[in-house]
Design brief:
Blueprint: E1 11-14, E2 20-23, E3 33-36, E4 42-45, H1 54-59, E5 66-69, H2 75-78, E6 86-90, H3 94-98, H4 107-110, E7 138-140, E8 145-147, E9 152-157, E10 166-170, E11 175-179, H5 202-213, E12 219-222, E13 228-229, H6 230-242
Parallel strand pairs: 4-5, 5-6, 6-7, 11-12
Antiparallel strand pairs: 1-2, 2-3, 3-4, 8-9, 9-10, 10-11, 12-13
């Protein structure tokens, strides 16, 4: 018997500061999708796998312009980026998004036979899953600001998982969107094995985590798992540094 077709591909829950947490409950490999409303435009951070109609789903939830930003070029974070007219990544992720492969998007590592619990649509064939290439409409650098109107989020370049990994920091509310780089639970991310993706760099990841220590953070909306507070972030970072030798 084949997989059933999901009646609804996304779940959504509104959290603090107007942030909405969007989830792909029928996929075992997924990232958190974060929707941040603004007065002039709205932000989607990490638009997921792209197996479902994420752009249409977001358009039903907010009015006006939407910009989608991916924390990294991995398929579970950037797979839906091509659905948005305004889309941005760090400039070092541009090649991965424009010319995706099974390897550089880690599809061949994480996409398994039992990844899906249901299908996004009847004609979807899991073994044929690919991410369409797309050109970003904006290339981001460290310190750039994404202005939503009355809400501004700063780009924090955090190489380690990939050269172009990034987080977004909203100083006004002391919020950190951790992306692929920062989560709580299971094995804490230290970057893909160096022999798997050419731009994985565990030492760079340590340096990136030291930058996180400099931020005033009350809430973390991570790339995977549930949100957590600044106290838990401090514990995670202490555990992380205690388990590693600082880079040269």
């Amino acid at each position: 018997m084949g997989l059933p077709v999901a009646a609804q591909w996304y779940d959504a829950e509104q959290l603090t500061h107007g942030v909405t947490w969007i989830d792909e409950p029928h996929s075992r490999v997924k990232s958190n999708i974060w929707l941040v409303p603004g007065k002039e435009r709205n932000l989607v951070f990490d638009p997921g796998t792209g197996m479902g109609p994420i752009a249409n789903t977001v358009a039903e939830m907010v009015e006006g312009e939407v910009i989608a930003v991916a924390s990294t070029g991995y398929f579970d974070h950037a797979g839906g980026l091509n659905q948005f007219e305004s889309r941005a990544v760090h400039r070092l992720e541009r090649e991965r998004l424009a010319h995706p492969t099974l390897r550089n998007m880690v599809i061949d590592k994480y996409w398994k036979q039992d990844t899906l619990k249901a299908l996004p649509r009847a004609d979807f064939e899991p073994s044929d899953y690919r991410v369409p290439g797309c050109e970003p409409t904006r290339l981001l650098d460290d310190g750039d600001v994404i202005d939503l109107g009355e809400r501004q989020l700063e780009v924090i370049h955090t190489p380690g998982i990939t050269d172009g990994s990034l987080m977004l920091y909203e100083a006004q509310h002391s919020i950190l969107f951790g992306g692929e780089t920062l989560s709580d639970g299971g094995e804490f991310y230290t970057g893909e094995p160096a022999d798997y993706t050419d731009d994985a760099d565990p030492k760079a990841h340590v340096r990136s985590m030291r930058r996180v220590c400099e931020l005033q953070v009350d809430t973390v909306f991570p790339g995977h798992g549930s949100p957590f507070d600044g106290r838990r972030l401090g514990q995670i970072l202490d555990e992380y540094f205690n388990a590693r030798v600082a880079p040269d």
